[in-house]
Design brief:
The chain has ten helices and ten strands. The strands form two sheets. An eight-stranded parallel beta sheet has the order 3-4-5-6-7-8-9-10. Strands 1-2 form a two-stranded antiparallel ribbon. The termini are far apart. It binds nicotinamide-adenine-dinucleotide (NAD). The site of nicotinamide-adenine-dinucleotide has 25 residues, from helix 9.
């Protein structure tokens, strides 16, 4: 089928739909409707976080969809204030109760916060290992981890993260972190895949879009999936939610792929914070 989203295998034997729907910055009051629309269009993977404040509405929309729980892949993430193991355990329970689910498909450490908690994210990771062992998190992973953070987990922990969710788009191709992931069987999830819209009027991207008869957003999302990354663009506009889903019935040739990759601006292409420095703890 032209619009089938591939399932890709994680290092723990589970699978994840390569395209999902992100709900960052969607107001709780708008979240259930946006997720309902996404599920109706065919998305089967929702990316939320404790920090987004809309886990309850994600759960509500999944239940209202009439789909079996097993048909929808749900990710959430540990908030920055809860890295200490006791706090992480309580926070994880609050995620499950907000979602009204007995498990999540994937649970992530949202940020490494290397300047907080005496630099200790390893005890936090070992706490996520508990959630996986007891079945309440089918898979576990990290987000915004840089190569030294991943190396430290490899040296001090037992479980290799299934994914690392990092900022990736044509202005920040983030090749070193992606390469570490592919060498160590950690899938890359690309957050802000269209740089929150900032790459969409880039002349190169507009030109490629015209050549293939697609929109700039579709071309950029297609570039990600051909690189093997997982994406979950966010939108509350029904037409765009649908547009972002229609990326499996065309391909970009090598030249087009290279043209998009060539737009990389390195560190100056970031739209979000630098994970080595980010230390925000919500009040
Ligand atoms: P995004 O790159 O998905 O861009 C979203 C914005 O782009 C929308 O607000 C909309 O204005 C615009 N847009 C969407 N589709 C469009 C289309 N077809 N045409 C034109 N404009 C369009 O940005 P994002 O929401 O920051 O990232 C996606 C998801 O990644 C989030 O919802 C969240 O789930 C995740 N995320 C994770 C982290 C993290 O630290 N782990 C950080 C940011 C985002």
């Amino acid at each position: 089928m032209a619009h089938t989203v591939p399932d890709i295998s994680l290092n723990d034997g589970n699978t994840i739909p390569q395209l999902g729907f992100g709900v960052y910055q969607i107001e709780p009051k708008d979240t259930a409707e946006a997720v309902r629309r996404a599920l109706e269009i065919g998305y089967r993977h929702i990316d939320t976080a404790q920090m987004y404040g809309n886990e309850a509405e994600v759960g509500e929309a999944v239940r209202a969809s009439g789909l079996d729980r097993g048909e929808v892949f749900v990710t959430s993430k540990l908030n920055n204030g809860f890295h200490r193991p006791e706090d992480a355990r309580r926070a994880f329970e609050s995620t499950l109760s907000a979602l009204k689910m007995d498990h999540v498909d994937l649970f992530l450490i949202h940020w490494p916060l290397p300047t907080r908690y005496d630099g200790d994210f390893v005890s936090t990771w070992k706490t996520l290992e508990e959630f996986q062992r007891d079945g309440r998190a089918r898979s576990i992973g990290v987000s915004n981890f840089q190569v030294p953070h991943l190396e430290r987990l490899a040296a001090e922990a037992d479980v290799v993260p299934a994914v690392n969710q990092i900022e990736v788009h044509p202005y920040l191709t983030n090749e070193q972190v992606r390469a570490y992931g592919s060498e160590h069987n950690i899938l890359t999830e690309a957050w802000s895949p269209i740089a929150q819209g900032r790459v969409l009027d880039d002349p190169t991207i507009v030109d490629v879009a015209e050549q293939v008869g697609r929109t700039p957003a579709q071309v950029v999302l297609r570039w990600h999936v051909q690189r093997g990354d997982i994406v979950f663009p966010k939108s509350t506009t029904p037409k765009r939610i649908e547009e972002n889903f229609r990326i499996f019935d065309f391909t970009l040739d090598d030249t087009a792929m290279e043209r998009l990759s060539g737009l990389d601006r390195g560190e100056s292409g970031r739209t979000g914070p630098n994970p080595d420095e980010f230390d925000y703890i919500p009040a």
